[in-house]
Amino acid sequence: MELKRHNVEVNDADPFANDWLERKGFATQLTNIIENNKQGEVVIGLSGQWGEGKTTFVKMWQKHMENKEIASIYFDAFEYDYLEDVFLSLAIEIYNYAKVNNLTAKEDYLNKSKNTYHLLQAMIAKTSPINIDSTLQEKLTHDESQRLDISEAIKNSLNFALDNAFEQALKQKEVFKDFKRSLSQLASEASEQGLPLVIIIDELDRCKPSFAVEVLEKIKHLFLVERVVFVLSMHHEQLEESIKKVYGQNIDAHTYLQKFIDYPTRLPKADLSNNSNRRKYFWNQVDFIGLPVRPSQSMNRSYELFLILSIRYDLSYRQLNKALQNYKYLIASLDLNSDYSYPTMFLMVFISILKVKSGTLISKIRNNAATYQDLVQGISEVRGQNELNLEVLQNLIRLSFLTTDSFQGAEHGSQEANFYNNFAGLIGQDENKVLINLVQRLESFEDY
What we know:
By secondary structure, this protein is an alpha/beta fold. 57% of the residues lie in helices and 6% in strands. The longest helix has 41 residues, at 150-190. Residues 127-134 have low confidence and may be disordered.
């Protein structure tokens, strides 16, 4: 069993083959928007919470568009924010796409990109549009015997500086215009069907606030041209916080963000209220994150318990994913020779789910303040399917509160004997530390 996280495989022939959250229909809707906006100059905002699968979805959708011969570029903004130069980062990604696809417009685009980059750097380096110091110095040192009209010198210097600034502004406008034209031509060449080039910007909400906001502004002012459609994949509430960090808490960040988006959309949430969907998603996730699949009867029963508890606690798919990851950590911490006995598996399932659902109860366990009633209150109300496993879990929780003396005389093969054999080292005369140990073991895997 590997601990590393895996990425969902995107099948080239059938991109949504592993679409466990059933979002192919939503991808079709977005593709229709692309096909109905052939002229481009459109920004689609794709919002979703962290951990809802935005990256997986856009990668599946990108491959789906490729199969329909819609040109697209995937840009991971978080991967580039260390460069701190948005224009350079995005321009390079577009050029690399043009180079890989051997577009004839790539050289013109490259030259225009260089001109624009140089101009942007010059604009940053220029601290003041007007500098009269050198002019005055020249007049003062030219002829000391000649009387200098200071006011006239300042006036002439200002006029020269203003004329020069006007010329520079015209030049800047022309350079930017040339860049936009070259990008539009490149986008037109990218698709033989007259469809726009789609540029997906992902992980925007994970970037430094200054970088994230500059991405929005650079797209609006330089990259949003004819034949180009942008898709901003983001957690829009978090991006609004980035906007406030840059422009202050008093700004209406929501209104500001909407200025950049023509089609605001939200990633559909998985419908786990249907138990059949939940079961299908659960087993896909078990396989996806590399958990042992049915290696023993105890493990198989623990998965059934996991499913029932996920229904009882109404876990979202994000919480379900996290709980499964917790379970994976706990299993990985076992001795390799462990037989995966059901007392260990059941209590690991319980702690894994409790960790994402009730920080209060976890805190009580950690501080040895939890009671049996505290822990079984939630699960005792469950009735129906696999009630036997729930009864077993409740009994195991009860046993976790007993001391060594309570297990004396337990018959071999009984639930009490099995429990004691698994946790003998954690059961003392005065205090049973089974649940405390499991919580501590799980929390040792948490981020710093």
